[in-house]
Amino acid sequence: MSTPKMRQELKRLLLDTASGGSRQLTEVETDLVQTNILLGEAIEKLGSSFMELHTAVLAQQKELEVVMAGNGTLSADDVARLKVMQDEITVHVNAAVTGLQFQDMTSQLLERIVRRVIGLRDALGVLSANSFEITPDSSQSIEELEGLLKNTVESMEERLTALENGLWKTVRQTRMESGDIELF
Fold first, then answer.
1. What is the C-alpha separation between 161 and 154, in angstroms, rounded?
2. Are 68 and 146 in contact (CB under 8 A)?
3. The model scores a pTM over 0.85
4. Which of 102, 110, 134, 138 has the most Cβ atoms closer than 10 angstroms to its Cβ?
5. What is the largest CA-CA distance in the chain?
6. DSSP bridge partners of 172
7. Degrees (nearest 5) of the Cα angle 126, 132, 138?
8. Which long-range contacts (CB under 8 A, 24 or more apart) does 86-95 make?
9. Cα 58 to chain centroid, rounded
10. pLDDT (tens digit per residue) in 47-81
């Protein structure tokens, strides 16, 4: 026969399992939505940057063809126009690199999602493993069952707390030269 304390521990275990699992799955869902947003933005930025880069390179090529068709020497105006075109190309390359930064941040989010799922699976594994310790016959005393339930609850709480504390909320990119980006 179960005791009120045993029922209380069982209730706490089930509530902790449900709330902890639900909280982690909500975080996974949020990370996936953020990942989708980042991917869309990265693709848009990269596409736009490469098209602008292509246009700038074509303009530079035309300018060079004009110079080559002439006497082969560059005037000060020719050099200035080529320098402006070179600067435009640099701007477009930097914009493309910024797009690549979004890929790195997306990878960080995906790593976080995987760690969250692994941590949740580990926490739920404790529940599963400890549930096998409960025998359906009356060979276990009430005190043994209470102790098992209490240990299971504490183990679940530790794992869910460790999981929550081990995950960062900010995704950042600081290694590329076109600037720092920090999201979420």
1. 10
2. no
3. no
4. 102
5. 104
6. 182
7. 135
8. 86/60, 88/56, 88/59, 89/53, 89/56, 89/57, 89/60, 92/49, 92/50, 92/52, 92/53, 92/56, 93/49, 93/53, 94/177, 94/178, 95/45, 95/48, 95/49, 95/52, 95/178
9. 37
10. 888 888 888 888 888 887 777 777 767 788 878 88
